[in-house]
Amino acid sequence: MNIIVVGLSHKTANVEIREKVAFAPSQIEKPLAELVALDSIIEGIIVSTCNRVEIYATTRDIAGGIARIKRFMADYHHLSLETLEPHLYCHHSEDAIRHVFRVASSLDSMIVGEPQILGQIKTSYGYAAEYKSSGIILNRFLHKAFSVAKRVRTETKIASSAVSVAFAAVELAKKVLGDLSDKTVMLVGAGEMCELAAKHFMNCGAKGVMVTNRTFERAEKLAEEFAGEAVHFDELFQHLHRADIVLSSTGAPHIIIGPRDVEDVIKRRKFRPMFFIDIAVPRDIDQKVDNVDGAFLFTVDDLQEIVQANLAQRSLEAEKAEQIINQEIGQFHKWLSSLEVTPTIVAMRSRFDEIRRVELEKTIANWKDLPPDAEKRLETMTMAIMNKMLHTPTAVLKKAGQGGRVDLYIDAMRQLFELEAAAEENEELDLEE
Amino acid sequence: MTHFFYLLTLALYGTATIMYLTCLVRSSTNLSLWAGRLLVAGCLTHLLSTIHLAVKLQHLPLTNTQESLSFFSLVIIASFIFFERRYKVTTLGSFITPIALLMFGISAALHGAVKPLPPVLQSNWFWIHALLAFFSYAAFTIAAGVAVMYLIQNHFLKKKHFSGLFQKLPALDTMDDISYRSLAIGFPLLTIAIITGSIWSEKAIGSYWNWDPKQTWSLITWMLYAAQLHGRLVIGWRGKRAAILSITAFVVLLITFLGMKHSINW
Questions:
Q1: Both A19 and A134 in a single domain?
Q2: Which of A43, A45, A340, B97 sits a CA distance of 20 to 30 A from A174?
Q3: Between residues 197 and 236 of chain B, which touch chain A (CB distance below 8 Å)?
Q4: Does some domain include residue A281?
Q5: pTM score, two decimals?
Q6: Cα–chain center distance at A66
Q7: Which residue of A has its CA nearest to B239?
Q8: What is the ipTM score, two decimals?
Q9: How many domains, chain A?
Q10: By residue range, what is the domain housing residue A391?
Q11: pLDDT tens across A173-215, in order?
Q12: CA distance A395 to B182
C-alpha cells in the first residue's frame, strides 16, 4: 500500500490557476466521494487553501493512481489535462510522507513558520473523516503529520520570531518594558505603519492610546478607532510623560522630539523606561534621544534589520525542522510497511498451497492401484515440504517487519511469487470479516 | 559524613553551574529544567550538610572563613531559587551560580579546625547578627547579579545588537523589578544585622560601636544601599544609574565581608 500526493502550490502555479482548481470547503463531500470511487484509489483527502490544492491518497498502483488523480482534478474543474499538468507535482511513498510532514510544519509555506496551514489541514482532514473518504492509513498518517508539526513548532524556533516590522516593534517593546498590559501608547502623526503597530500593541494588551496630530480632527478620528484620547499637537509635551510607547510618523521636515525634551519627560516619569519608534522620513525624533538613560529609540531601519535577522534564523531553524522530519518519516514508513507483512505471508502460503494441491491431485488421479493410506501420507508429506520451505521466509519477513527494509522484502516476495492477485483476495476476505 | 555531603554538593553545584552557563549559548528547555533541579538538589544536600555540621559543633557554623563562605553560598543559592520561581529568570542563574560555586569551592578547599566555641561567640546576639548579615548579603548578591545583566541588556539595546544572549536576558523592566525587590529585602536585614552586631559587641567587649574596620565599612555599605533605596523611592532612580550603584555597593560589601576584621577577636 502506498501513499501518493498530487497537487499544486504557490511554488508551481500562479493565483489564477490556483483559483480554478480550488475546492470549496462547503462542497467537499462530492469531490471526496468521486476521489475514492476512482479505480485503485482506496483512501483520499483533499486540502484546498489559497496557496495550495493537494490530494493525498492511498493506492496499490502508484503510476495509475497518480494519473487518475490528475485527470480527476482536471475533469472536476473542467480544465484540460494539458493546461493543468505542467503545474502539478506528485510524490509517492517516502517522498509523499516527507511532503505532507513538511507542509503541515509550514516548511513549504510562503512564510516559513506561519501558523495557519496546520489548522487548514486539520479542517480538511476533519471533512475526510466525516465523509469517510479517509481510512486507517490516512487517519494515522495525518495524525502523525499533526504531531510532527507540533514537534517542529516546539523544538525549533521556526515560528517564534517576528518577521514583520510591526511584530518586531512589539517584541522589542516587551524586552524593554516587560509586560505590555498596563502600558500606554502615543501615536504622533498618522500613517499606516503607525496604526498597524498600534494595533499590535493593543492586541498585546496595551491599555491606553493617545493620538496627536497637527490636524486635531484627524487625531480625533484615529483616537476613536482605538477608543483612545486625542491630544492637541501643541500640548504634546504636556502629555508625553504619560506614554510608555511613542510611535512617531509625521510629515514634518524637522525634528519634533529632541533629547532635552525627553530628559525632562523621563524625569517626570521617575525614570520609568520609554520606548520610541520613529517611522518618519525625515526623522521626527533626534538620534541623541537614544543616549538618554531610560529612553530607547528605534527607527524602521533598525526594525528591518531585526526582521531580516529573524528570517535568516528561520531558515536555520528550518534545517533543524527537516532533521526532525527525517526522523519521523523513518518511523512512519516502518509502520506502513509492517501493515503489509501479514497479508503477504498469508498470500505466500496461499500460493504455495495452491501449487501443492494441484500437483497432489494430479499425482493421485494418474496413479492406479494406490495403496489405501497413500493419499493421507502424500498429503502429510507435501504439507511438511511446504511448511519447511515456507518456514524461513515467513520468519524473515516477520523479523524484517520490526527492522527497516521490510518493503524491499515484501516487494520481492510479491514479484517473485506473483502474489498480487492472491493478496487482494485475502484482503477482501479480511475486510468482510 | 559531612565530607561526603560536601563533595556531593560540590558536584551538584558544579554540574548545575556548567548547565546554567551553557544555557547562555544554547537554548533548551530541558537543559534549564535540569539545571534548576540539580541546583535544588545541591541546595538540599548543602542544607543537610550544614545542619549536620551544626549538630556536630553544637552551634551554627558561622565562626570562621570556611564556614562563612559555605553558609553564604547556601543562602545565595536559596535566594536565587526563590527569585527564579517567582520571576522565571533562568538566565540569572548563569550569573549567580558561578559566584556561589566559587565561594563554596574555596570553602571546601579550606580546612577549618574544630575549635571549642570561644566565650565571645557564646552570645545569642552573635548568631542573630551573623544570620541576618548573610541573608542580607545574599539579597544584595542577587541585586548585583541582576544589575550586571541589566547593564548588558541596556548596552545591547542602545547599540542595537540583538544577539542570542539578548533574546535570553529578561526584559529590562523585570530586571529592574528584581533589583528593587532584592534591595527592599536586603536593606532592612542589613540594618538589623548592624544593630544586633552592635549589641553583641557590647556583650562581648563592652562597647556598642568601636569604629573598627568591619563596623566602619559596614556603615559605608549601609549608606550606599540607603542612598540607592532613597534614590529609587524618592527621586525615581532606576535603570542604568541604579544598576551601577548596586554593583558599586556590592563591591564595597564584598570588601567588608572578606577584607575587614572585627575588633572582637576569637
A1: yes
A2: B97
A3: 235-236
A4: yes
A5: 0.68
A6: 22
A7: A294
A8: 0.79
A9: 3
A10: 332-432
A11: 888 888 888 899 999 987 777 788 888 888 887 888 899 888 8
A12: 69
